[in-house]
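Researcher: I'd like a candidate sequence for this fold, 181 residues long. If you have to choose between options at a position, lean toward the conservative one.
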């Protein structure tokens, strides 16, 4: 059973062997799910929006799942981003796909933050491409999935030609990484 604490509901993880002792915290006012470690330290969080998208993606039959889920690759490139309040940052992105990118940051912005971004892809590093996005999930410290702390940003507004360049790059990198048949 969960317990209630000032707008939050917390559920202790008990049945999972790998994650026993951790806690799932549901924040209904901010619509965020947070994973807390054994000592109550935040390990990362996701917006309900992102969780729902993931659940729906895995409900689809396998044939459509492949074409719907956005391919992504690990790739390092420069990214500049600005919050609605006008705070500007410059960082490195650690991955990109048709659906968004991962920005490396030791102080990731909260889930739900809207960003105006500019990024330069390695093949033309002096050309800055623009897109808008939303912080969909954060990882405050490196774990087995992300080699550095940061935030996953989902594209909310990206020009079709920029998106197709991103997808071409992803396809090219994936192709290189594939063993010959």
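Model: Candidate sequence:
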């Amino acid at each position: 059973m969960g317990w209630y604490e000032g707008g939050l509901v917390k559920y202790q993880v008990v049945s999972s062997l790998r994650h026993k002792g951790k806690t799932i915290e549901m924040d209904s006012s901010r619509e965020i799910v947070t994973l807390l470690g054994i000592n109550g330290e935040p390990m990362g969080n996701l917006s309900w929006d992102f969780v729902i998208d993931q659940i729906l993606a895995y409900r689809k039959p396998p044939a459509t799942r492949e074409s719907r889920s956005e391919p992504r690759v690990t790739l390092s490139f420069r990214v500049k981003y600005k919050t609605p309040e006008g705070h500007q940052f410059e960082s490195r992105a650690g991955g990109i796909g048709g659906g968004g990118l991962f920005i490396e940051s030791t102080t990731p912005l909260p889930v739900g933050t809207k960003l105006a971004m500019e990024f330069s892809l390695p093949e033309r590093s002096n050309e800055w491409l623009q897109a808008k996005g939303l912080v969909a999930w954060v990882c405050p410290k490196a774990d087995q999935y992300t080699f550095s702390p940061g935030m996953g940003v989902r594209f909310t507004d990206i020009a079709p030609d920029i998106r197709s360049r991103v997808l071409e790059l992803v396809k090219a990198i994936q192709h290189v990484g594939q063993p010959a048949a």
